[in-house]
Design a protein that fits this description.
By secondary structure, this protein is mainly beta. 5% of the residues lie in helices and 39% in strands.
């Protein structure tokens, strides 16, 4: 579980969120710890990286989605200052 801004990123795959890639995934904000929904776009390419504000605390999140050749997705969310 994510405890704060310096915590390790949590990885998700399609079994974690039980939806196809065109839907959304719930992740925990690394700043406030609240669950938020992020959209996952199957047509967005194999690797997707973008910044999205937390819907609760408005802090900027670094989002990375990697879609495997078999259609499974790995979603990581972190802070902008994480290397």
């Amino acid at each position: 579980m994510i405890d704060g801004p310096s915590s390790d990123l949590r990885e998700w795959d399609d079994e974690d969120f039980g939806a196809d890639l065109a839907d959304s995934v719930e992740v925990s904000c690394p700043y406030c710890g609240q669950g938020i929904d992020l959209g996952v776009d199957q047509a967005g390419g194999e690797v997707q990286e973008y910044i999205e504000d937390c819907q609760i605390c408005c802090q900027p999140l670094a989002v990375r989605v990697i879609v495997g050749w078999d259609g499974t997705a790995s979603v990581t969310v972190g802070t902008l200052d994480e290397g």
